Amino acid sequence: MSHIVTIKTELRDHSAVSAACRRLQLPPPIAGTTELFSGQVSGLIVRLPDWTYPVFIDMTTGQVRHDNYNGAWGDQAQLDRLLQANAVGPRRFRHGAE
Fold first, then answer.
1. What are phi and psi of 76, to 5 degrees?
2. pLDDT (tens digit, 9 = 90+) per residue, 30-75?
3. I need a labelling partner for 85 at 20 to 30 A (CA). Which of 7, 23, 26, 39 fits?
4. Which residues contact 96 (CB under 8 A, 6 or more apart)?
5. R_g of the chain, CA atoms, integer Å
């Protein structure tokens, strides 16, 4: 019997998000206000490659908000990479390490 697993990710550590951006060679996150399609939001802003709108992180709630219009305005894989790199934290991977 298969099971559905839901994982809720919360980003609350500015330094961990910054480290994830460095690992992925993204511009550093910026605290400020930005425009999403649905309106303005304030918090930590991360720009992902080829995304129309930036990713917004509410550091108080840990919620990540974005609008990629089901992939038309940005590749979901880019956000997934950011979330995964953030989850790793300060650890470093060696090529071929498991």
1. -55, -30
2. 999 988 777 888 999 999 999 999 999 999 999 998 888 889 999 9
3. 39
4. none
5. 14
Say if 51 falls within a structural domain: yes
| Per-residue tokens: 37 | 């399609």
Residue pair 9/64 in contact (Cβ under 8 Å)? The answer is: yes
How much of the chain is helix, strand and coil, in % rounded to 5? 25, 20, 55
- Placement of tokens 């974005």 in the chain: 66
CA distance 75 to 71: 5
**pTM greater than 0.85:** no
Q: Which of 78, 77, 48, 61 is nearest to 8 (CA)?
A: 61
Number of domains in the chain: 1
Its domain, for residue 71, covers 14-84
What is residue 38's predicted lDDT score, i.e. its pLDDT? 79
pLDDT band at 6 (very low <50, low <70, confident <90, very high): low
